[in-house]
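User: Please run a holo structure prediction.
Assistant: Happy to. Please share the sequence and the ligand.
User: Here you go; the ligand is zinc ion.
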Amino acid sequence: MNRVKTEIPATLEEAAQAGRVCMDVKKDGQFCYHIYLEPDFAKLPEAVEPLNIKERKLCIVADSTTAELYGAELKEILKETCTYVSMFVFPAGEVNKTLNTVRDLYEHLILEKFDRKDMLVALGGGVVGDLTGFAAATYLRGIGFIQIPTTLLSQVDSSIGGKTGVDFDAYKNMVGAFHMPRLVYMNLNVLKTLPDRQFSCGMGEIIKHGLIQDSDYLEKLSTYQREIREKNYAALLWMVAGSCKVKRHVVEEDPTEQGIRAWLNFGHTIGHSVEKLKDFTLCHGECVAIGCAAAAWMSWKRELISEKEKEAAEQLLLDYQLPVRVKGLKPEDIVKTTKLDKKMDAGKVKFVLLKKIGEAFVTRDVEDEELLRASRYVCGEEIHE
Ligand SMILES: NC(=O)c1ccc[n+]([C@@H]2O[C@H](COP(=O)([O-])OP(=O)(O)OC[C@H]3O[C@@H](n4cnc5c(N)ncnc54)[C@H](O)[C@@H]3O)[C@@H](O)[C@H]2O)c1
Ligand SMILES: O=C(O)C(=O)C[C@@H](O)[C@H](O)[C@H](O)COP(=O)(O)O
Ligand SMILES: [Zn+2]
């Protein structure tokens, strides 16, 4: 489908009229890949046409849940576009986003004689996408891959921008590579099978996008709450397109995180520590929400945003059933874990705060005491000034 990019709907009415959206993502000013937002998988054959895969093999990588729900349908569709479709399935869950699973996938690809021009297809959430992208970045020194994100989080965030990787010894995303997908194709109606908890996780990254880059979008997330929670198609299209727009802008400016891409890490410094300390029993999006509450609190304490704005940010997260506090952790452990993370830069924590609602900035001047107080805040401790 050589469809040119379409307008990104600014309102629900515009989204209802548009019905679908196509965006392109550039790298170094040149076209890199398309993002399709569609109501089904029908246009996928047209979307893959420009990738010249007729003489090639594809391997669908899915987790146990997405394989069961959409594997057969996708295989059937892709069979018509290439010579052979293989399938690699691993058990769902963050605990499997590891080098062991990547190793099993390499073995599968070698057995199936995948060569440098064959491609992988990630069918699933951020776990599948990050892992498949990393395998694609490293197998035979790099092969192509397609993202078919099936969670809200992966549609609005992880499928775009080419950050790929796996966890290592429970350290989040410790091993990885930047490797751009050749295509991102999302069927928004797969969100109908997504459990509510996972839908909320996507809202964590969506609210993050509003906070760091687009206050108007953030405000509408509040206004359109009913339609979004009902998973009204136009509301989903408006919301997913709006988030993809924020993410695209940031990754086009700074594909390898030398500067503003770090904004996307808002809420992730404390968030990743909570994720690790809770042994991955909380989902990524939930930990990001807790981390956003901590970073918004710090921004308020530095008098960058008002108390009312800090409260409104927390309320929006709560409205979408996300946690803003964590139980059962010691604030000191959060600080210690943060300092073991890869966000350290010459001994300083790289932290993202809000200059105002809708604009972030990166700072390296967060001292342990401030980090500890923010950790105590999200642990629900009373803080006496
Ligand atoms: N690369 C990036 O830029 C980036 C950005 C954000 C998050 N991430 C990573 O993404 C991961 C989190 O991704 P996630 O929240 O999508 O989690 P996930 O991939 O674990 O998916 C959550 C659960 O939903 C199930 N699922 C997926 N699609 C479904 C559907 N349509 N219907 C029913 N069930 C479905 C999955 O099987 C899984 O059990 C984390 O590892 C995080 O670090 C990466
Ligand atoms: O795309 C990015 O850049 C992001 O930081 C998006 C984040 O939501 C995502 O969780 C990412 O995987 C975090 O990256 P990390 O490098 O901090 O592990
Ligand atoms: Zn994230």
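Residues 63, 65-66, 69, 92, 94, 97, 124-128, 130, 150-151, 153-154, 157-158, 161, 163, 173, 190, 193-194, 198, 201, 205, 283-285 surround nicotinamide-adenine-dinucleotide (ligand 1) (CB under 6 Å).
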